[in-house]
Amino acid sequence: MHAHRFKIQLALALCLAGIGSATTAQTATDLNARSLAATCANCHGTDGRSVEGAAVPSLAGMPKAYMMAQMKAFKDGTRPATIMHQLSKGFNDQQVETIATYFSALKPQK
Ligand code: HEC
User: Fold this and answer.
1) Which of 41, 82, 96, 106 fits as disulfide partner to 60, beta carbons 3.0 to 4.6 Å?
2) Is the CB–ligand 1 distance for residue 83 below 6 Å?
3) In this predicted structure, what is the pLDDT of residue 13?
């Protein structure tokens, strides 16, 4: 009887522990993505939504593959730029992918 109850509690504890660690990992990833993406906000607007009529394009809702290709082109100089060629050099491929994933999931600007 007692042993049975212990087993249930143990199962429950393991289950909760599993959920707890998954949530922590998720939050850390999210925070990393948000802080990387925040470095773009100065020019591209909060959450990648630039002001209407601004020269700097919006990033929110930009397809991931497109953004990754542009960042690569800025980096290797195939796409001419005023500032992005310098900025893009500050991020490695993994970070660019994280940033592109983040922005592609945001709702595009109307
Ligand atoms: C200092 C201002 C500034 C910051 C910060 C900045 N950008 Fe840009 N971005 C620009 C400008 C200006 C352009 C237009 C190209 C150029 O002249 O460099 C541009 C263009 C782009 C484009 C091309 C858009 C298109 O429609 O093809 C992408 C993608 C981009 N930026 C991504 C980013 C990302 C990702 C970040 C953050 C890691 C970032 N930018 C940070 C100023 C900025």
Assistant:
1) 106
2) yes
3) 59
Pick the atom of ligand 1 nearest to 91's CA.
Answer: 38
Instruction: Report the distance separating Cα 108 and Cα 34, nearest Å.
Output: 17
Residue 109 has a pLDDT of 75
Q: What percent of the chain has pLDDT over 90?
A: 59
Give the span between the Cα atoms of 49 and 58, in whole angstroms.
5
Q: Over range 61-84, report the average pLDDT.
A: 97
The pLDDT score that the predictor gives to residue 12 is 55
Q: Does ligand 1 come within 6 angstroms of the Cβ of 68?
A: no
Find all residues with CB under 8 Å of 91, minimum gap 6, and list them.
Answer: 36, 71, 99
